[in-house]
Specification:
Strand order of the largest sheet: 3-4-5-6
Structural class: alpha+beta
Number of domains: 2
Radius of gyration: 37 Å
Distance between the termini: 99 Å
Number of strands: 6
Order of helices and strands: EEHHEEEE
Largest sheet: 4 strands, antiparallel
Number of helices: 2
């Protein structure tokens, strides 16, 4: 836009320079302000919009992955908590020391899992689908060899997430005291 200026003297010493806009017209007689937007402006606007939509899509993907990880961690903690609560029903004398991977008779009598626990999801029509399989393992040990009235019980729940090579794990531990002594 080209402007034409004029000088004018007002109020004695002040000089005021006023700009008058000159309107540039194209061949068809339309002024440039009313021509609309150019192709480059449209392309830039679409590029900015596409980056914004891509960012929203990536945020949605991360939110879905976080939800899945949280659901599996919650299921593993519920399995571990439920199994540790059952230990309260076991007499202290039956809690023999055992290493990871060993099994005890009282575990199967109480329905405690040593091995795989499947979490199933109900499907429409009464069908059931296994969502995830969790591996459960126990370890029972004396806290200190001299203290025969205190046992340390550790429980580990392990599972494999989608798109992951390394297994995920959740562990709980508790101390059991012999109150009958």
């Amino acid at each position: 836009m080209v402007s034409v200026g004029t000088l004018r003297r007002d109020c004695g010493n002040e000089i005021i320079f006023k700009m008058k806009p000159k309107i540039i017209r194209n061949e068809s007689g339309l002024d440039r302000r009313h021509l609309g937007i150019s192709l480059i402006e449209v392309m830039i606007a679409l590029m900015v919009l596409s980056f914004g939509l891509l960012t929203v899509a990536l945020m949605q993907l991360h939110a879905m992955q976080g939800t899945s990880k949280g659901r599996h961690l919650t299921a593993a903690s519920m399995i571990a908590r439920e199994q540790l609560e059952q230990v309260g029903r076991v007499p202290f004398s039956a809690l023999n020391n055992k290493a990871w991977g060993q099994s005890e008779a009282w575990m199967t009598e109480l329905g405690l899992a040593q091995g795989n626990v499947s979490v199933v999801v109900d499907q429409p029509g009464g069908a059931v689908q296994v969502e995830r399989v969790y591996a459960v393992d126990w370890k029972i040990s004396d806290v200190v060899p001299q203290n025969l009235d205190l046992k340390n019980i550790e429980l580990s729940v392990t599972w494999l997430d989608e798109n992951s090579v390394n297994p995920k794990s959740f562990s709980l531990a508790t101390l059991v005291v012999n109150n009958k002594r």
